[in-house]
Write a structure and sequence with these properties.
30% helix, five-stranded parallel β-sheet, FAD, 321 residues, 9 helices, binds flavin-adenine dinucleotide, alpha/beta
Length: 321
């Protein structure tokens, strides 16, 4: 299969979740005898393209129209490049950015799409894709009909692709200006400045639940332990709904699905919707005053006690080392 992977980036480097999408694509290409290219989109993205070229050949579309993440031009550029180059499979990370853009491109291409793929297999020459449903309670195995096929890949399900030690080259593509036409206009971005990494990128995630009574306590305990470990702060939905933690920290079925090396759940009960977002973490640590809390069923290490007492002790011990 001829495969293109949409490279999500932060303006300087490709995001970890896209490296997992590349790993998926490389595995499919190895099984089908195909090839894989990156598609880097944005404005002034030379540095990103150079970073991406360390893993696979890069096609770059650079335009002021792609400076801000507006779905319309991004989707049309993807569908145009796929048509012009005859790509048979489009892969992207299963992220908020991709959820906005990739289904539009799939509709423009008239292609079949599978979202949030966690496993794949080539059986009888057909690519079978596993995608979880109902918060992971069941897994559907789907085979997409026709070409092109469009797939988003869950970052936590595939280990990130690694640089190969060679430069795979960069091709700059000029497209007809009409491709960038957009009915929307970019009015600005409101973003909380957060010095901590995003939960999807961090090796260690410390999440807080309803045990925390207000934003100050959350910041002091959850933020404090995250900082002491150089990790990200996350949250259950209960705290997001209560306005105590910001939306982007939510882990779970309707939040972010992650699999860090270490996940620390402070005062989180372990509802199935929360587990759906973190149960594949390599090591899970839970602190909860209720010894019967379901979070202990998935925890590798459990501490029964009050987070208001235990968390400061953990922070103090870490900081004294
Ligand atoms: P609770 O369930 O209230 O648990 C609080 C825990 O803290 C308890 O176990 C308690 O023993 C413990 N505790 C209390 N005080 C202390 C203390 N001082 N020290 C130590 N422990 C203490 N939830 C998500 O998290 N993410 C999602 O994406 C998500 N999506 C959802 C989607 C749908 C469609 C639905 C219906 C629900 C969703 N939920 C989600 C909500 C989910 O069902 C739970 O309500 C939520 O996860 C509970 O959050 P919590 O564990 O913080 O709170």
């Amino acid at each position: 299969m001829r495969i293109v992977v949409v490279a999500e980036h932060d303006g300087t480097a490709v995001r970890g979740a896209s490296l997992s999408a590349l790993a998926f694509a490389q595995s499919v290409a190895a099984a089908t005898g195909g090839d894989v290219s990156w598609l880097v989109l944005g404005h002034k993205v030379d540095v990103v393209a150079q970073d991406a070229a360390l893993l696979a050949p890069v096609i770059v579309v650079d335009s002021p129209a792609l400076e801000n993440p507006i779905a319309e031009p991004f989707a049309r550029v993807i569908s145009t490049v796929v048509k012009e180059r005859g790509f048979e499979l489009v892969a992207a990370a299963s992220s908020t950015f991709a959820k906005d853009i990739v289904p539009r491109a799939a509709a423009q291409l008239g292609g079949a799409m599978a979202s949030d793929v966690v496993r794949h297999e080539l059986a009888d020459g057909r690519l079978q894709l596993d995608t979880p449903r109902y918060a992971g309670a069941v897994t559907a195995t789907v085979v997409l009909q026709g070409l092109p096929q469009i797939v988003t890949v869950r970052g936590s399900a595939y280990a990130a692709a690694q640089p190969t030690g060679e430069n795979h080259g960069i091709e700059r593509l000029e497209l007809n200006p009409a491709v960038f036409d957009c009915r929307g206009s970019y009015e600005g971005l409101k973003s909380k400045q957060n010095a901590r990494p995003d939960v999807t990128e961090a090796r260690v995630v410390v999440s807080g639940g309803r045990a925390f009574k207000n934003a100050e306590d959350f910041e002091q305990h959850v933020g404090g332990l995250a900082d002491a470990l150089g990790g990200a702060a996350g949250s259950s939905r209960a705290l997001v709904d209560a306005g105590i933690a910001p939306n982007e920290l939510q882990v779970g079925q309707t939040g972010k699905i992650i699999a860090p090396e270490v996940y620390i759940a402070l005062g989180i009960s372990g509802a199935v919707q929360h587990l759906a977002g973190m149960k594949n973490s390599r090591t899970i640590v839970a602190v909860n005053s209720d010894p019967e809390a379901p979070i202990f069923d998935v925890a590798d290490y459990g501490l029964v006690g009050d987070v208001y007492k235990i968390t400061p002790e953990l922070i103090e011990k870490l900081e004294s080392h």
